[in-house]
Amino acid sequence: MMAKVNFRRLCVALIIGMSMMFLFPGLSPAADTIKLGVAGPHSGDLASYGIPTVKAAELVVKDVNAKGGILGKKVELLVEDDVCKPEVATNTATKLLSEKVDVVLGHICSGATKAALGIYKDSKIIVMSPSATNPALTQSGDYPNFFRTIASDDAQAKLEVNFALNKLKVKKVAVLHDKGDYGKGLAEYAKKFLENDKRAKVVLFEGITPGAVDYSAIVQKIKRSGAQAVIFGGYHPEASKIVTQMRKKKMKTIFISDDGVKDDTFIKVAKQYAEGVYATGPMDTSNNPMAIAAIEAHKKAYGTDPGAFFLNAYAATQALLNAIQKAGSTDYDAVEKALRTDYVETPLGKIRFDKRGDAEGVGFSIYQVQKGKYVELK
Amino acid sequence: MEYFLELFLGGLTRGSIYALIALGYTMVYGIIELINFAHGEIYMIGAFTALIVASVLTLQGWNHLAILVIASIAAVIYSSAYGYTAEKLAYKPLRRAPRLSALISAIGVSLFLQNYVLLAQTSDFLPFPSLIPEFKFNAPYEHIISSPEIVILTTTAVVMILLTFLIKFTKLGKAMRATAQDREMAMLVGVDVDKVISFTFIVGSATAALGGVLIASHVGQINFYIGFIAGIKAFVAAVLGGIGSIPGAVLGSLVLGWTESFFTGYISSDYEDVFAFLFLVFILIFRPAGILGRSETDKV
To answer: Regarding the domain with residue range A13-150+288-360, which homologous superfamily does it belong to in the CATH classification?
Structure first.
């Protein structure tokens, strides 16, 4: 009996002692490390979304530390699990703060990110997510401490509108959609951006019936509206019918659409009429030497291909560390300024962040059908 | 005014497209009172046959008009064979069963044919060549009308006139009308009812196949599912015009085409279908048998 109790006490003492060892050795050299928090789901059913980010951070940090660290300090990772749940994410954030984290890479899910952001904001900690795509996170303006290296859900609409206004310089735009969640969502964003910009007028905003035998009436309506360009949210079967019918009626109206149309079937079906059509699609990073190197490093270190958001997380880690380096300290204002002004080379290309916190130059590109192929426009 | 004219012609073309399919619906219904739900699939098979034949002939370097004619003939023959077989296998054994059984059987044939083409061909959209040559029109007209539209309009008119002639003035037409009025009495006076019904299916399938070729060539793309939506719309048009009546099917189709076109043009395309079906309900409240349908008393 006695022996048992003693054994248990010994265990407890040992555990406490060991945790002390974990906690306290950090204390004395604490001033000499930069603490990078990594938060996301690392267990549970969504772990596959979070773990690649941890691996990306480990790879980048290993690289950086091998080269002597940043500002003469080593980078230390503080990895915390939020299982993708908003209620857990707040605890995760509090825990990271109590450990005196400098910057945070994460969170992964939009809901969890939103829940944790307020806590980080109050403590002036910069947070960068490789994966949270909810538009409001950056657009609401509520979280000046938030950045991300993935395009938000409305990025395609934004890109289409900017392209139409800046490059094509159109004054009248017709916005159409197929009434589906994806197409209608995009079209509504496009309409909002156009109306906010005021350089062009939305002369027509309508939903078409998917699968109809022909679209002559809506094509005539586009013509009568005097639109110079059509922005269409939807998929290729309807897009090819509308484009074909417009071209057959000798209308030269510019047609801009989304990655539901950036599909080779569209060109195959619309044939010569597809020529000149613009569509947004995910940016091609397969030729980026840094992306190839990062994937190779992952294969070497872990023996497998990287998982979801790996390159986005890789780029985010690089961007954060680079900003600290440029800022000369982990001071909130200095790092924030560096993130917004200095470009950094990443596997996603050369990026910096706009005033809302979205990465410029990440996500989607404009493609145009040229000689029967989608060509990325630079 | 120009806008009105454009919408009018757009609606006319769309209506003619519906009409080419609706004619088959209404003929079959007129003779054996069966709503042949597989009709849209016959139309789809016609389009696929034409695509296959046209692709082969294009590779051989035939000229466009010859391809159009041969592809149409092939589509008509192949689709008619399907219509004939479907009738013999799925409807004839049920001729004495309640009408609902034959209707369910028709839905079964429709699903079977859709999935058969899906498996045998592909689920992707396929490009369909423009078989109808495009003529150049001068400035004010080029925005309004194109040669494929004229061909569709003319074909619909010709098919409608031929069918009316066939039913009103030929011996076979007389047999068809007799079968429609009273099948057993027709048998007693020596009409080969089985042959008449088979013939009706063949003619109905042939018009659907012709529609398939022309419409696919106009729209430029096909997949296994096109028959379903076109079939539903054509069915609505046939009911609107008065199912069983040949001119009624054409009139109903045109009215439906115009309704959709003008509603989209002047109000909004968001509720195009809603409005089209509201209009159908409205017509049926005042004329339960459709625009040209004769209200018949139940057979005792």
So the answer is: Response regulator (3.40.50.2300)
